[in-house]
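Quiz preparation item.
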């Protein structure tokens, strides 16, 4: 097998394994898309990963040609090789696998992906990286037979440097596994579809040996006339200066870089036009190092709390929101493109929102970019959902890695005002400690945004109609946010009229969820479950109740569009969909849509 022998020789000559990094703003760099058709092999037994003694092929000193990542081919008619990439079927990337072929709909397990591509660098000294927007859930990544690394977490980007592995003709292979595990984040149990696959963009990008890798350019939360932050180079050639240019503000500063390749800066400017939903002003910011220019579109605003109020640029704002899952109902499947973002956020605008809660995990970059352009404030969230393993260090590390990647990716997004640490997690000492540590990590990276978590309410002892939030977690966050389903899981809609709230914190209150299910086109009186009338009545009565809650500062009802959920089995009504959408999965408006739209038009 000549081909295989050649590969093994090539591998042994390779340098150390590629490092995992997070380089900002990849879409604005010199990219080559690896999106499009990829080959795939469904591999429930992970035959391409383990030998018959259940030893991973890639852990062996001489990886066997039987590992699918080797992308080997028989060299003569007698060779035995039990896979054939070239004759394997094709799948589209980005995109979950579940709805590309019927056999994938409920599949949870491993699928191999392969892309071949030619590449030649623009200059011999340049460096090349591979960026994955997201892969759900675990990805083993190989280039030309060499393992680049493993990434866990289905909603955050990851990258590898491949400078020394690239050849003229390349084979990029991934084993993607979307099995759910108790130890993971999220854990076994959620209320959304576990879409598997390479769900976001795959891009190669090329850089000079030393280049601008990371930056944070924000207003000082205590001084709205001060633009402050840092710029970080990657590479060894740190002799030159770095320039920050915002042409519209006449800012053009040259900075010396320190020995770590970093600049910390502060610029005073009194002419800044502040970003807000009414004025989604984005400035072109150009960073240059030597002859390379990296551009970004950045808005400037401050966000803080004052007692029970949220202040955007110093002015009190109510968050008129809606919760959104990252799903395109027309195509059925994970949303990943600019067009998907336009569709979902366009609906939110039409509804009269100035704010969206992107639930329950970090959504794709296009959603964030579009929210900045359209003027929608954003709550971003990590999938610390329901009952994860609070005592498990591995679980904590996983959650922290996802939180860190989310914040790093979107730390220049003016639209993003809230990082949310968790959703409906049952209080305990271990959970409190877990979330306290997460809050500290978030604040150590970013002091310019608010922290939150969707908590729960409970009744006061002996007084079922008095609802309380009493949660140690409120010590670690800036907002008292909670989900409540009075009228749906908790009594009938009229129960809202008997309820009062006691919230013993001087912080803004956000109702991060309320709602009810309805099947579009199903009608009856307002006491008949699943009718549009029931849902509309739940909205009307909840909104009346919510208006009276002291310190109420915003809401994000559950949810914009019906979404796929494997927990929803009611035949003829749910059929695998959570029906709490204000829009059906065909994009049709239910009655409750108009109730909320009317509320946003006439209140706050
Ligand atoms: C919740 C969860 C959300 C569910 C929703 C429901 O409280 O946060 O993920 O989908 O309830 O519809 O039950």
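Solution:
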């Amino acid at each position: 097998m000549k081909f295989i022998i050649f590969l093994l020789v090539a591998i042994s000559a390779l340098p150390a394994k590629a490092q995992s990094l997070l380089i900002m703003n990849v879409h604005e760099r010199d990219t080559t898309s690896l999106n499009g058709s990829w080959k795939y092999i469904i591999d429930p037994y992970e035959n391409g990963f383990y030998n018959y003694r259940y030893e991973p092929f890639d852990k062996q000193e001489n990886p066997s040609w039987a590992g699918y990542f080797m992308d080997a081919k028989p060299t003569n008619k007698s060779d035995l090789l039990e896979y054939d990439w070239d004759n394997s079927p094709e799948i589209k990337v980005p995109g979950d696998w579940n709805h590309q072929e019927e056999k994938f709909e409920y599949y949870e397990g491993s699928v191999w992906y392969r892309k071949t591509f030619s590449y030649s660098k623009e200059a011999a000294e340049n460096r090349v990286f591979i960026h994955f927007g997201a892969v759900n859930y675990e990805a083993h990544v190989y280039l030309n037979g060499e393992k680049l690394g493993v990434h866990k977490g289905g909603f955050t980007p990851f990258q590898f440097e491949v400078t020394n592995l690239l050849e003229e003709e390349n084979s990029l292979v991934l084993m993607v596994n979307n099995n759910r595990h108790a130890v993971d984040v999220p854990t076994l149990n959620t209320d959304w579809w576990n879409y598997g696959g390479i769900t976001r963009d795959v891009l190669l990008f090329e850089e000079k040996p030393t280049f601008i890798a990371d930056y944070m350019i924000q207003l000082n939360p205590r001084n709205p006339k001060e633009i402050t932050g840092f710029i970080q180079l990657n590479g060894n050639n740190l002799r030159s200066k770095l320039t920050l240019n915002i042409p519209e503000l006449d800012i053009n500063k040259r900075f010396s870089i320190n020995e770590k390749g970093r600049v910390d800066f502060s610029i005073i400017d009194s002419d800044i036009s502040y970003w807000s939903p009414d004025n989604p002003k984005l400035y072109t910011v150009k960073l240059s190092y030597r002859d390379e220019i990296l551009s970004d579109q950045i808005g400037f605003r401050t966000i803080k709390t004052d007692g029970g109020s949220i202040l955007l640029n110093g002015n009190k704002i109510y968050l008129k929101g809606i919760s959104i899952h990252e799903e395109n109902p027309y195509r059925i499947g994970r949303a990943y493109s600019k067009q998907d973002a336009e569709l979902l956020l366009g609906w939110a605008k039409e509804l009269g929102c100035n704010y969206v809660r992107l639930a329950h995990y970090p959504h794709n970059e296009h959603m964030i970019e579009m929210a900045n352009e359209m003027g929608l404030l954003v709550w971003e969230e990590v999938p610390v959902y329901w009952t994860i393993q609070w005592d498990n260090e591995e679980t904590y590390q996983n959650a922290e890695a996802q939180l860190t990647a989310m914040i790093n990716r979107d730390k220049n997004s003016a639209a993003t005002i809230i990082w949310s640490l968790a959703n409906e997690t049952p209080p305990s000492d271990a959970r409190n400690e877990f979330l306290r540590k997460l809050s500290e990590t978030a604040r150590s990276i970013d002091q310019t945004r608010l922290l939150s978590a969707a908590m729960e309410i409970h009744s006061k002892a002996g007084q079922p109609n008095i609802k309380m939030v009493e949660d140690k977690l409120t010590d670690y966050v800036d907002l008292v946010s909670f989900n409540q389903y009075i009228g749906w899981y908790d009594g009938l809609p009229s129960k809202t009229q008997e309820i009062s709230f006691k919230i013993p914190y001087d912080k803004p209150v956000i109702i991060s969820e309320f709602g009810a299910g309805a099947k579009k086109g199903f009608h009856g009186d307002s006491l008949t479950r699943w009718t549009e009338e029931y849902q509309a009545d739940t909205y009307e009565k909840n909104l009346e109740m919510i208006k009276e809650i002291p310190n109420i500062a915003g809401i994000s009802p559950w949810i914009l569009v019906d979404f796929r959920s494997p927990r929803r089995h009611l035949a003829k009504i749910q059929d695998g969909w959570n029906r709490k959408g204000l829009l059906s999965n065909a994009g049709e408006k239910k009655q409750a849509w108009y109730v909320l739209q009317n509320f946003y038009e006439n209140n706050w």
